[in-house]
Amino acid sequence: MFKIYLVFISFFSLLTLQSSAAQKDFYQLKVYHLKTVQQEEKVDTYLRQAYLPALHRAGIAKVGVFKPIYPTDVAPTEKLIYVFVPFRSFDGIAKLEQQLAKDQAYHNDGKAYLEALYTEPPYERLEVILMNAFDEHSKFTMPQLKAPLKDRVYELRSYESHTEAIAKNKIEMFNKGGEISLFKRLNFNAVFYAEVVAGSRMPNLMYLTTFENKVDRDAHWKAFGADAFWKTLSALPQYKNNVSKNDTKFISPTDYSDI
Q1: 59: left (phi over 0), alpha (psi -120 to 50) or beta
Q2: Cα(184)–Cα(154) distance, rounded to whole angstroms?
């Protein structure tokens, strides 16, 4: 009887953990690395006419599509397109692929991309990053902005750490430490905060904040750096040296992005 009781408790604990995990979003970030204008046009057409409509039909109402904001006096070494897809759980990725395989409209609308010849590939490389949402921001959030999409500045940050344990420490700083609460208080309009579980630059976390424009972005970060809570938090010994590299990218939503 005692063994049966232990088995029941273990099974109940497993279900509780699975239920808890299921309450957090799981994110996929695709990064298209492009070389030519023709590739960019082909991927844009595919995303606009085939991929996003198919995801909407599959029950994913909001998909973000973004492009880098380059300085006007510096030519980019490559073209990039970011596609952010929120799922309710990790299983959602496999389910989506199954739905896409059966979606004839998707295959018809995306034929030029899906059946591209090796002599005319639609991109140079496709990078895929998978992420678990943070406890204190467990669901992605639509930005509450008034500016037109073309004027907005979105800031995608990736914080790399020296080891897995140190990366967990930085995530704790966001959650228990109160860094997310500070971002919320200062109205950074974050879309997501997440731990990267599969990607090319690990261990790391990523988050996306949004602003009306560049002036608005700079004002928010100035307030962040001057905030008394941040000065206290960043000075705590337990959170020292938990980021080895901060990779910041400024991106803008396309005219067909949902986010």
Answers
A1: left
A2: 16
Indicate whether 83 pLDDT > 80: yes
Domains and CATH numbers, the chain: 24-252 (3.30.70.100)
CA distance 82 to 66: 5
Do residues 128 and 13 lie in contact, with contact meaning Cβ atoms separated by under 8 Å? no
* pLDDT 10s digits, 96-116: 999 999 999 999 999 999 999
Query: What letter would DSSP give residue 165?
Result: H
Q: pLDDT digit string (tens) for 1-44?
A: 444 444 333 434 434 434 445 589 999 999 999 999 999 999 99
Taking the chain, what is the end-to-end CA distance rounded to the nearest angstrom?
Answer: 54
49, 109 contact by CB (below 8 A): yes
The Cα 157–Cα 208 span in angstroms is 6
For residue 214, the surrounding DSSP H or E stretch is helix 214-226
pLDDT band at 74 (very low <50, low <70, confident <90, very high): confident
Indicate the pTM of the whole model.
Answer: 0.89
Give the chain's radius of gyration (CA, Å): 20
Secondary-structure breakdown of the chain: helix, strand, coil percentages, each rounded to the nearest 5:
40, 25, 30
